[in-house]
Write a structure and sequence with these properties.
Blueprint lengths: L16 H25 L6 H13 L3 H25 L8 H22 L4 H16 L2 E2 L2 E2 L6 H17 L4 H28 L5 H19 L10
Antiparallel strand pairs: 1-2
Helix pairs in contact: 1-5, 1-7, 1-8, 2-3, 3-5, 4-5, 4-8, 6-7
Amino acid sequence: MPYSEIDPTAPIRKIDPLLSMGAFGLSAVAGFSNCVILEYYHIPISHMTGAVSMLGIDLAESRISEIGNIIFIIIGFVIGAIISGVVIHGPQLKPKSEYGYILILESFFIAAAALFLSHKMNFGLFCAALAFGLQNAMASSYYGLIIRTTHVTGIVTDIGVLIGHGLRRRRFKSGKIFFLFLILSGFLSGGFLGIRLFFYFQLFSLFLPAASCLVAGILFLFLLKSGRILGGPTS
């Protein structure tokens, strides 16, 4: 859990605004997609706690037809995390082109999920879970925290722990708390927007987060190459 990575002695400093925007955007993509698929299939795909719980229920109630879908999701998420780990292979968040490539790959799998699911093909669940396995694994350690943008259990835990640390030491790390609230609000607002658009476009609404990841990946690569991101080739 992210809680174990919090360093109460870490210095307070300003978080990179670009990172804040990226974390908000990624959490919004996850919240959007998760709520759309949850509304249609009643299965969460951006985090595995709900999926594994559903698997336990389906096994206990012998719902054979549903078990395959859950296994598809779990395997897809793990494969996505494996791919991200192979491509990024770094425990610390550092500006490099691999993040842009992962975002572009994520956009492909979200779009594939939209196409498969809109044609009643459950393989789309695998594609969606793989996309968020990619996203969840690409987030690394930064500023004494583990950044997780596909679920909010750790985020809410970290907020509580940081407030607890602040009450004990009478010194609140407001920058970290704000950053975590930003991710939480991104997931919530993404879910709200996803359901609103689902009413009109059904599963085709998933093309919006797919397009967002594609644009973000291409923009990130451009900014990195031009040196506008610290750590880029010309910096």
